[in-house]
């Protein structure tokens, strides 16, 4: 039972990433091969920071219109408001939950941990597209907006950096 319970979390995460269940977006391996459709959809951007992580995190735009199949790059701005280096990892989903399998991310800051120096401010890109297969799904005929939501969580306490010392930790830029 203990082994089954321990294995349940990674299995559930794999299942969600594979199927888009519960609004889990997909990781694209390439850009779409088709021409973007004329149909547009509004993509809204939401940002949150969990307790214990002293970051300010917000999208540079709160909403954009995109053509289905169009590759788009948007930016979020993150500022470490602490006097020490801190590390966070972003969790993400989309709403409505049924469109997770159609929301394809090519590149995202959420794929790796992010370590930020004291007071550091950074632009973090997300490159994505809405899969043209969405247009063929009759359940989504009336869909006119998708919300992409991120929450940054603290990963671990980071030691302060000595003045002028480069940050060699994973995910640091």
Protein described:
With about 170 residues, the chain is mainly β. The chain has one domain (about 15-155): Ctag/Cox11 (Pfam 04442) (Sandwich). About 10% of the residues lie in helices and about 40% in strands. The protein has one helix at about 1-20; strands spanning about 25, 40-50, 55-60, 65, 70-80, 85-95, 105-110, 115, 120-130, 145-155. The longest helix is centred in the first third of the chain and has 18 residues, at about 1-20.
Fraction in helix: 10-25%
Work out the oligomeric state of the chains in this entry. single chain
The dominant shape is: elongated
For the record, the CATH class is: Mainly Beta
The sequence of SSEs as H and E is HEEEEEEEEEE
Strand content is 35-45%
Strand order of the largest sheet: 1-7-9-5-3
Domain count: the total is: 1
Query: Using only CA atoms, what is the Rg?
Result: 18 Å
């Amino acid at each position: 039972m203990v082994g089954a319970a321990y294995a349940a979390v990674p299995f559930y995460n794999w299942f969600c990433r594979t199927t888009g269940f519960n609004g889990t977006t997909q990781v694209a391996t390439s850009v779409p091969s088709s021409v973007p459709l004329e149909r547009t959809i509004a993509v809204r951007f939401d940002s949150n920071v969990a307790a214990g992580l002293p970051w300010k995190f917000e999208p540079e735009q709160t909403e954009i219109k995109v053509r289905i199949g169009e590759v788009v790059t948007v930016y979020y701005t993150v500022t470490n408001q602490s006097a020490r280096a801190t590390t966070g990892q972003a969790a993400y989903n989309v709403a409505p939950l049924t469109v997770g399998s159609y929301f394809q991310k090519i590149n995202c800051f959420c794929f790796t941990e992010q370590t930020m120096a004291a007071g550091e401010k950074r632009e973090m890109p997300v490159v994505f597209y809405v899969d043209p297969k969405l247009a063929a799904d009759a359940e989504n005929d009336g869909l006119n907006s998708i919300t992409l939501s991120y929450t940054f969580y603290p990963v671990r306490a980071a030691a302060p950096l000595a003045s002028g010392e480069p940050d060699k930790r994973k995910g640091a830029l």
